[in-house]
Amino acid sequence: MDSKSKQAKRKDASKEKFKTKITADEKETDEKENKSKYGPMPTFPYQRVFTRAILILGVLTVVYFGTKENKEVALAKQKEILQHRAQDITCSDDYKTELEKFPGCVPQRCGRVVSDKLVSASEADALLSIAKRGMVHGGSEGGATILDLHSGALSQGKNFVNIYRLKNVKDVFKKADFTFYKVVKTKIQHAVAHHFGIQPNSLYLTHPTFFSRLTAAPALTIHDEYWHPHVDKETYESFHYTSLLYLADYGRDFEGGRFVFIDKDDNTNRTVEPRKGRVSMFTSGSENVHYVERVTSGTRYAITVSFTCDEKYAIEDPTFPQMEHKH
Ligand SMILES: O=C(O)CCC(=O)C(=O)O
Ligand SMILES: [Fe+2]
């Protein structure tokens, strides 16, 4: 028997049950009617009302919590090695309209993509070494230290200094460091262009593009509070496409610190667990609200590589030797 006819049969059976129950009830009422001197006594099926109320309450509770509670889905687990994992999302209107000013830069699709095959482990290590060598000369007292090789900005205590103006930093960076940096940036730029269906040369690197080091230390300034949900295009006006290259492993180098996309449409948080060499790329509009979980232990290194379609916000690749330029 197929499932349809089974279902029909079950329906018939329950109708039948229902009928018998009604007949039984009617009988009871009739008897009572006959017995009463004062005509028919009003009857009310208390028990049925009670069970139905409980049932309805149950259904409402399930619906309420089912829609209220955020589900969590992993977009990329640390243990996975992904060629390419993409998720498309409808572009937010404001963002798409704005981009129409920049032909060749309007995304053919919005959303996000994660790849572990774009940047090799040795490239990631070379960049990690740059970040570490630079950050030794500063470091936030709170949980977030940044180093921007373009502007020279480096967190120090509660402020920022220009690393290129510090004494004793002359030999910190080598020419090869900047070559690596540029090679990786160009690869990411092409991957962003390819994935979102735009012209690579319509994309410009923009400010801020920076290394970040996150720890569990309590925040001392607003710059240390990296865990607030935000839209990159609102936080950093020039951004149209954001990419993140992770230089450390979630669950090995640090705990906490997962990247989380907040998808209101289906009440789902989608997480990207950092993995060394993993690149996450996404459109910077409100279709991609996100935050970084607080790091609970260890140290998390990453680099944010940002792109704009607007040439007036373009920044140059950092060059060696920067120190001489900045004096
Ligand atoms: O480090 C990350 O995973 C994301 C950082 C971020 O959201 C940002 O720089 O805007
Ligand atoms: Fe962000």
UniProtKB/TrEMBL annotation:
PROSITE patterns: FE2OG_OXY (PS51471). Residues 205-310 form the Fe2OG dioxygenase domain. Residues 1-36 are annotated as: Disordered. The chain crosses the membrane at residues 49-67. SMART domains: P4Hc (SM00702). GO terms for molecular function: dioxygenase activity; iron ion binding; L-ascorbic acid binding; oxidoreductase activity, acting on paired donors, with incorporation or reduction of molecular oxygen. Signal peptide: none annotated. Keywords: Dioxygenase, Iron, Membrane, Metal-binding, Oxidoreductase, Transmembrane, Transmembrane helix. It comes from the Eukaryota. InterPro entries: OGFOD3, Oxoglu/Fe-dep_dioxygenase_dom, Pro_4_hyd_alph, Pro_4_hyd_alph_FE2OG_OXY. Its cofactor is L-ascorbate. GO terms for cellular component: membrane. This is Fe2OG dioxygenase domain-containing protein. It comes from Diploptera punctata.
